[in-house]
Amino acid sequence: MADAYTRIADAIVPSVYAQYAFEEHVQSLEIYQAGILFSDPAISSKLSMGGRSVDMPGWKDLGNDPSEPVNDDPADSIEMKKIGSRREVAARNVRAQAWGVPDLTSILAGDDPQKLIVKRQTEYWQRANKLTLLGILKGVVADNIANDGGDLVRTTGASIVDTDIIEAAYLMGDRADKFKAIWMHSKQMKALKLADLIDYVPSSEQGGPLIPYYMGLRAVVDDDIPVTAGVYTAFMFKDKAILWNELPVNTEGGPLEFDRKPRQGHGGGVTEMVGRRHFVPHVPGTRFLDASSAGEFATDAELALAANWDRTASSVKNMTFIALKTTEA
Q: Who's near 128: CB < 8 A, 6+ residues apart?
């Protein structure tokens, strides 16, 4: 793909009395505020050990064997049970993005795009990370449908209604009350609002926005939610459902690197900026197989493949999310 630079045509040339303004990005970042993601400092040392993936070993539950009554026979020893282990694997991600700004663009626009690009780094990477997370969720769901009977998915074949979320939650049986948030498309939210099923709770911040809830679940609305052939996939999460650890970019260039190209622009000069991030997301109860990745690290599209995932949790109850697939009214 050819390089693309922010050129004069991409900037606004203001009049003497006008101030330069930029169009705010409209994508939602509420998922980062809803308690769905969490980091675990206890595993940071593992994450810094290298490798394309990260082993996340854990223990299985003790099971549901009934307790046994004791007796006074010294020859009668109680049978020993063992605790099993499970091997989970997280996908390491090292990502980059680059922007180029010719000096003439800044002169004619009356403002410096470089400053804006640097200022918006956090917001950009939050949105990019969100798309990576959606790829992972799609891959885990695709594997579940292909190999685990789809016990993680509720498909209605109709527009979302009040009972759908209840039915979806009870895929986890007696753990149905563990869900804390739902991440849905605006078309799904619209249907619930038209049915007057959404409650609004004031934000803890003074003067902050009202936060939507449905049946006690914080509702996060986002049009990047997967839509395929008119089917909208919402995700319901338990508290702290997704492990997400950000790691330092310990390369020579660091997380944000600048490079001057004075001869480009026919001598006008171009500044190139490269942003980098290193992070390890993980859905508990899963293993990243890395079975279909062309490069050193999987792309978002590759993370969405069923072939790259396997469930290690012995029961759907031990998973941290479920998927609800509905159509538009």
A: 95, 97, 277
